[in-house]
Design a protein that fits this description.
Number of domains: 1
Distance between the termini: 52 Å
Strand order of the largest sheet: 1-2
Largest sheet: 2 strands, antiparallel
Shape: globular
Structural class: mainly alpha
CATH topology: A middle domain of Talin 1
CATH class: Mainly Alpha
Radius of gyration: 21 Å
């Protein structure tokens, strides 16, 4: 079998998997709902849950590609937000010991993983291949500034407000933070896809640095899916989202028990959720970095961070009306230090529009420190 035929066979198998896995996940959800499951079945359910997350993002990307920008970005962001909110609310509704801080832990984990882990990996892959990663500081800086503002409004201020005891917003404060998050995210989508789209594309300086005279229009673009393909992906997207939320409900008690039995703090649950949700973005960012499209990788990373805060906080703020569990969003001292370090290092990385292995290593070390301290506070 030639390499081309092996690649074609692999692509065919993956396309079939994106259809089979969501349907199998829903069938499994119906079969296991409300039952005590043996360990082997629990493992299968977790694997199907992870597969459904990957497939949901894949089908959202297909629909987004067919619709085009700026609505395509919104569809993809909404799909990822539904997954994140569904997982968080499902676990919060169980009323466990850390339910009140689960939303904070998940959103903060998403910010740290995207701004340090995915950014660091993207810069590392590009710098290893081209010595220097070159990107547009205008668009990347705008994204980073928006992420820092959203994180401060939603995760830092609740620690210092005095309207309620503890790291919580009052009702009006939460409504303001949620509204501001939605406004900033909506404005970002408009600026990225309509008003200043060139700020978020591969710059001319990047092409000159790597000896490439082609412009953004010459970069490889996948064929636009047909209407039939897009409609099929839309149906499978809904099926995948139902499977994700349902299987998360099935596994909620098991996840919390496993974390507690391992002697880990409850904040690790939020890290697990964030890692699961961000796996597709991580793979896509690394794939683009390998193709010398670091700007696209940074767009994916910081755009995911922005959606995680801007849309998730707003959705959970609305859901908190019906949840009996309080919503504690304020970060603790260690988390505040890590967020401040991330903001400072991110600004220094973005300002020159160029990064080397050193900047990549710094971001990856911060991500590693976050993961280590999440398990060993």
């Amino acid at each position: 079998m030639t390499p081309a035929s092996r690649t074609s066979a692999l692509g065919t198998w993956l396309n079939r998997a994106t259809v089979v896995v969501p349907l199998l996940a829903v069938a499994t959800l119906i079969a296991v709902w409300g039952r005590d499951l043996p360990a082997v079945v629990e493992v299968c359910v977790v694997l199907l849950l992870a597969g459904s997350v990957l497939d949901a993002v894949h089908h959202a990307e297909v629909v987004a590609h067919r619709v085009g920008e700026p609505f395509g970005s919104l569809i993809l962001a909404v799909a990822v937000t539904v997954i994140e909110v569904g997982l968080v609310i499902t676990l919060m509704a169980s009323g466990g010991a850390g339910a009140a801080t689960l939303a904070r832990d998940t959103v903060f984990a998403a910010v740290m993983i995207t701004c340090n882990g995915i950014v660091g990996l993207s810069l590392l892959v590009t710098a290893l291949r081209h010595r220097v990663a070159v990107f547009n500081p205008e668009g990347t800086g705008a994204m980073l500034g928006t992420v820092i503002t959203l994180a401060t409004l939603s995760l830092v201020l609740p620690t210092f407000t005095i309207g309620t005891p503890g790291p919580e917003f009052t009702g009006p404060q939460l409504a303001f933070a949620a509204t501001a998050s939605l406004v900033l995210y909506g404005l970002f989508v408009f600026v990225q896809n309509v008003r200043h789209r060139d700020y978020f594309l591969r710059s001319a300086g990047t092409r000159r640095h790597h000896g490439d005279a082609s412009g953004p229009a010459d970069e490889d673009r996948a064929a636009v899916p047909s209407v039939r393909t897009a409609l099929s992906s839309l149906v499978l997207l809904v099926v995948s989202l139902v499977a994700v939320v349902g299987l998360a409900k099935v596994e909620s008690a098991t996840i919390e028990t496993a974390v507690a039995d391992a002697g880990l703090p409850h904040s690790v649950v939020g890290v697990v959720i964030a890692l699961t949700i961000l796996l597709p973005e991580t793979l896509a960012a690394v794939r683009n970095a390998r193709r010398d499209r670091v700007q696209i990788s940074l767009n994916l990373a910081l755009g995911s961070a922005m959606a995680s805060i801007g849309l998730t906080i707003a959705a959970i703020a609305v859901a908190s009306i019906w949840l009996a569990t309080p919503l504690q969003l304020g970060l603790g001292p260690t988390q505040l230090v890590l967020l401040a370090l991330t903001a400072g290092v991110g600004i220094l990385t973005v300002m020159p529009g160029r990064a080397t292995l050193l900047q990549a290593a710094v971001h990856l070390v911060i991500c590693a420190a976050f993961l280590f301290l999440a398990a060993n506070p």
